[in-house]
Amino acid sequence: MAKLVINADDKKAVISPEIYGHFSEHLGRCIYEGLYVGENSDIPNVNGMRTDVVEALKDMQIPLLRWPGGCFADEYHWKDGIGDKAKRKKMINTHWGGVVEDNSFGTHEFFELCRQLGCKTYVNGNVGSGSVQEMSEWVEYMTFNGVSPMSDLRKANGHEEPWTIDYFGVGNENWGCGGNMTPEHYANEYRRYQTYVRQYDPEKPIKKVCGGANVDDYHWTEGVMKTCFDHVPEQFHGFMDLLSLHYYVHPEGWEIKGSATDFDDEVWYKTLAKAIHMDELLERHSAIMDQYDPEKKVGISVDEWGNWFTVEPGTNPGFLYQQNTVRDALVAGITLDIFNKRADRVRLACLAQMVNVLQAVILTDGEKMIKTPTYHVMRMYRHHQGANLIYSALADVNETGKGEWNVPKVHESVSEKDGIITATINNLTVDETIDLDIILAGKRDLEVVEASIVTEEMHAYNTFEEPEKVIEKKFEGCSKAEDGLKVTLPPASVVMLRFK
Ligand code: AHR
Q1: Which of 36, 156, 442, 443 has the highest local Cβ count within 10 Å?
Q2: Do 409 and 375 fall into the same domain?
């Protein structure tokens, strides 16, 4: 019989709420239509932000939002997006779909959105095509409260008080769309640019994110860490709070990618196996970081993760619009469990992307909005935010798979907060119901306070005609046993149990 053994006395790191963060880029219908419709839209909005989307994201307990990109960030010139909207520059979004970007969503709008969401802010600066001065002035514009040209400009544009930048990314993918740099060159640029990301308010320090590797580019991590940590003067402390990592799952590889909805058992297991690869990536990048930062002062920010499939037929290939099935729910569950278990190093992560792009939690069509299976998983997992990771281990759990792709049948993580234990458990099999005994060290009489599940046939997804095909439901497959709990996990399911 498969077992899940838990020890609540064996506390690990606190799970940073920011691991449950999101990413919004000026890409396709993420910002425009998805989040921002403008004050004059017929779609209900508050200061231009869609009310339905904001309410759904708040209900999911979104902790953090990254903006404006992505590749867009290294072409973004922030002064184009402030002041009178009628006079803002119009331009072509050369990266994404060749459509007109009218800059109506800019700095003020981003902070207004985060205010409505009640979430932390992660602003990504431009290293690839911007200057140190431009980046430095943006930080001054956003956060300085005294008399200065940029602070005065912000006030003249209608915002008296400075905003809070919780995280600031110094460039994005500078090994690629952010300037095609070598690790050593980027690291020197990072050292220079971050110097001028001034900390104007000591009460609200900005955490700086250094641009990290793509997938398994360990050479990049080594080169960046070595160069950044070479001759670090004392006053330089805090020069790097996080190092990023980007990893997307493409079942059929980068060129072909693969359909979001049409796949067989083998591709199911291939996708889940590729999602589990995240664990090895974190292990190995972290081991390199340990050489320079053994105390783990620098966290990993997986600020782009998720499934990247072939776009939905008939949609603009540059908009990266894809559907979201039960397979995405499993990839979300597995990945979030991996982040939880690596909470000692992973301190921030952003699903790519929040609305209408890649593994989105929300899809919109005009005034209609649906929540995807990934939304429901992220909402279920919200109880892990800020909780203590605790020891958990599976016993007597075999592997399953098809062709060359094998995965463990069950995948989990467990945390504790305010005396309540949250266990999230994924059944990765396509067709096997799994009985699992849950044993909590030192306690036999367990009381379940909440239990829910996301499951359906593996291809199932929500549409605008049938928006509730895959949703979070009450989980009935859990009962008390003599020495803990007995759980029956349906195939292709993500389960969340809370007990004490
Ligand atoms: O999320 C889509 C793109 O993927 C981002 O703009 C870029 O950073 C990454 O390559």
Answers
A1: 36
A2: no
Determine whether 173 is an active site residue. Answer: yes
At 153 the pLDDT is: 98
55 shares its domain with 177: yes
Catalytic residue (one of 304, 412, 416, 472) = 304
Distance CA 20, CA 32 (A): 23
d(CA 136, CA 240): 16
| CA 96 – ligand 1 centroid, Å | 10
Catalytic: 222?
no
Q: In the prediction, which pLDDT does 231 show?
A: 87
* Contact indicator for 387, 379 with CB cutoff of 8 Å: no
**pLDDT computed for residue 232 by the predictor:** 80
Contacts of residue 479, Cβ cutoff 8 Å, sequence gap at least 6: 485, 486
As for how many domains the chain has, the answer is 2
Let me know whether 481 and 345 are in one domain. Answer: no
Contact yes or no for 485/449 (Cβ under 8 A):
no
User: Do 74 and 33 meet the contact criterion of CB atoms below 8 Å apart?
Assistant: no
Cα–Cα distance measured from residue 280 to residue 19, given in angstroms and rounded to the nearest whole number: 18
> Would you say how long the chain is, in residues?
500
CA angle 379/120/213 to nearest 5° reads: 85
User: Domain range spanning residue 109?
Assistant: 16-385
SS3 category, 416: strand
Reported as a single tens digit per residue, the pLDDT across 196-252 is: 999 999 999 999 999 999 999 999 999 999 999 998 866 666 799 999 999 999 999
Report the distance separating Cα 197 and Cα 139, nearest Å.
Answer: 6
Query: Does this model's pTM top 0.85?
Result: yes
**Residue 161 predicted with pLDDT over 70:** yes
Give the residue carrying structure tokens 């591709």: 267
Percent of the chain with pLDDT over 90: 97
In ligand 1, the atom with minimum distance to the C-alpha of 73 is: 6
Query: pLDDT tens for residues 30-77?
Result: 999 999 999 999 999 999 999 999 999 999 999 999 999 999 999 999
